[in-house]
Design goal:
Elements: H1 2-18, H2 33-57, E1 95-98, H3 113-121, E2 128-131
Antiparallel strand pairs: 1-2
């Protein structure tokens, strides 16, 4: 605590006194390059504190409706709060492909709809392939 008190009572005031702050607005034009460099840390710190304070005070807490482009799942089990599919390992067979693009008409299984999705959007999504090794 003594270190903090010394900083606030001695070091910080000395630092502020040493800053080349002109007495009027016209004085800024007379500052040298070294003077401007000395002001950068102080101005940056003050700007950051002001920005963080304003950001904290004026946070937009309203929940915004998602844009159409933000929604990944556009039609599968929309009545559920979360889409969960459970598959027993015995049902997998030798090779099973699961959809990751949410466009498959056989969801959760892949039907290749990602190919059209990738062409339209420039995306590179593909299925997850699960193989059974014996």
């Amino acid at each position: 605590m003594e270190v903090v008190a010394r900083f606030l009572k001695v070091s910080f005031p000395n630092y502020l006194r040493s800053l080349p702050i002109p007495k009027n607005v016209a004085g800024f034009a007379e500052l040298s390059g070294a003077d401007w460099l000395a002001l950068i840390p102080f101005v940056g710190t003050v700007s950051l504190v002001v920005y963080l304070t304003i950001s904290a005070l004026f946070v937009d807490t309203r929940k915004k409706a998602p844009k159409e482009d933000d929604i990944i799942n556009r039609k599968i089990q929309k009545e559920c709060s979360k889409v969960v599919n459970q598959v027993d390992i015995d049902e997998l067979g030798e090779k099973t492909c699961y959809c990751r693009c949410w466009r498959s008409k056989k969801f959760p299984l892949c039907d290749g709809s990602h190919s059209k999705h990738n062409e339209e959007t420039g995306d590179n999504v593909g299925p997850i392939v699960i193989r059974c090794k014996i």
